[in-house]
Structure formats: C-alpha cells, structure tokens
Amino acid sequence: MVGLGDLPGGTFRSTAGGISADGSVVVGDSDTDVGSQAFRWTAVTGMVSLGNPPIVGGSSVARATSADGSIVVGYAASGLFKEGFRWTSSEGMVGLGYLPGGGIYSDAIALAADGAAIVGYSDGLLGQEAFRWTSAGGMVGLGDLPGGATLSGATAISVDGSLVFGYSEVASGYQAFRWTNTGGMAELGNPPVEGGKIVLTGVSADGAIAVGLSETATGEQSAVIWTSEGGVLQLTDMLASNGATGLAGWTLTEASGISANGDWVVGYGLNPDGFNEAFRANISPSSTSGGGGALDVLSLLALGLIGWWRRGSSGACSAPESPAQRATVAATLSLPSAQIHPPWRAISYAAGLMLRALI
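^ thats the sequence. predicted structure below, dont judge the formating
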C-alpha cells in the first residue's frame, strides 16, 4: 500500500474516490488553502489538481473516472450551490448544469466505461430527480417511482451506459430502481418496510447484478443484492443458499462494490467479535476465480477503513464531510432533505479500490 500524498496548502487530507480499470489513475479530493479540490493521480504525475471549478470560489470533489482514466466526474460547491462536472485534459472542468426548473444543486456520481454517459441527481421543477447526461442530449431527467414526493437519484451505471441504478421515494420509504431507455424506471423487487430504504451503489459490467444496502425505519442496516431472476435479497441469505463458508457470527451491513464479472462482492459488516470489518465474498459457487462461495476477511485493509470511518465513533455510521458537502452528509440514507448521494462515501470508495486490487 502506498499513500498518494495531498495537494499543496491547507490541512493535510486527501480522499480517493475512484480508480481507472487498470488501477493507474486515481481520482478524489484534497484540502488546499482555498478549500477542497478535486485531483487526478498517476505514478508519473503524482497528485494534480483538476483546476478551477465551474462555481467561482467553490470547492470540488472527484467521484469517479472512466475506464481509461481520461474523463473524471464529480461536483463543485460554494455555499448552498452545488453543480456536477465533467473533466477532461483538453476542456478542463465543465459544469453539467441542472434539470429544468432547478439551479441549486446537481451531482455527477458515476459514468459509463467510455465516459459517454454520466448519471447523478439534480434539483428540478418538482423536486430532486435522477439524471443521465450525454454530450449529445445533455442532462435528461429519469423520473421517479410512483408514490411519495418527487425524489430520486442515480447511483450506478452499467459499463455500456444502457442501465442505470438508483433510489426513489415511494409511499412506504425509499426503493431501488433500474432504468433503461426502453422501459424507463422500474422498481426492483421487494418493496421496503414501512419507512425503510434500499440503495444500490455497485453494479456488474452487464448490469445483471447490483449490490447495496437496506435500512429499516429503526436504523437496522443490512447488505443486499439484486438479480433479475431473484429480485432484492439479503446478501447473507444468498451466500448461505450458495453454500458459502465463513458466515458464522457475521452481520453484513453494506455491499459497496461488485466485480465486473459479478463473482465477487466487497463491503463491510460486524465480525464475530462485534467489530466493523471489511469483507470479500464469492457469490458464484461455480466460479473458477477462487473462493467457492467463501467470505474472506481482509483484516489489514479493514483496520484502515475502520480508522478512517469511525474517527472515535462509538459505532454509528458517520462519514465526516466538509461544510461544502453539507447536503450529502445530511442526506446519507437518513434523507431529511433532497440532497442525497451513495451512502458512507469513505467506506464505499475504499472498498471499491480494494475490490479492484484483489481481482
């Protein structure tokens, strides 16, 4: 493991948010003397700022990069205003704008492998809405599920950009959805319990499997997995039915990433000793990539994740953010406002990096 350093100025702090397919490019954000700034890192260039954000005087955060590392997406923020951006070396950081009727906030969360399609959320005429952006069509709202207020957000996209996953408010809570160009937004299987939430944050390359978490009205969280055949299932139940070993005593809290081939899932949960620990699990019993349905404990990296996440916490999930990210903190699954993004960014992103390093 190698530290990536930080950008000049300000408090020493940097966070990795995304990585290219071959691991050679890492993106994220770092403190500087003018606030948090998005960066792009390679072994040759080191950590380099992505330049001035589209919002004058604002901070910026890079969330994800294309497969070859040439396109970066994220958001810039200043005060109450926030705007998703797309960065390339030739054009720099360019704002994606907002949905019609909006203009306060938008956020670019994920992108297709070639960077041609970008997904996230934006305020609009009726409320917060998931979007899909392309250079040809600009930002297009994806709608929301029936019931509840107008509130949806896109959190993941397939490699080819044709499938989008996210969350939407329904009458009984928040439900996961899958969007296609032909079928629009469709609810994914089991409805949440009263006041519950389901958020999917990772998807296989072909979009056939997605992973994330569910949360009940009382705050009980569990890792979930969605397949087109089985709908939304508890990850623990799927692993058990596939004959996975190593599950005894574990409570799987979140599945934060999945390998491109859909065989491996990573996340975190409570281990048999009651401590939060990262895990890797093989969900395909017939896979030849090793594991045979086993749950692997990744203790060394887990220590880093836990130290980053807890920061003295007694156990409640908390991912501290800068003031410029006020909306994303407030909205992480507790959803008191319309500002939402994939939950527990620090752990999810670190687990994503871990996944790429392992497979």
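The CA atoms of residues 38 and 238 lie 38 Å apart.
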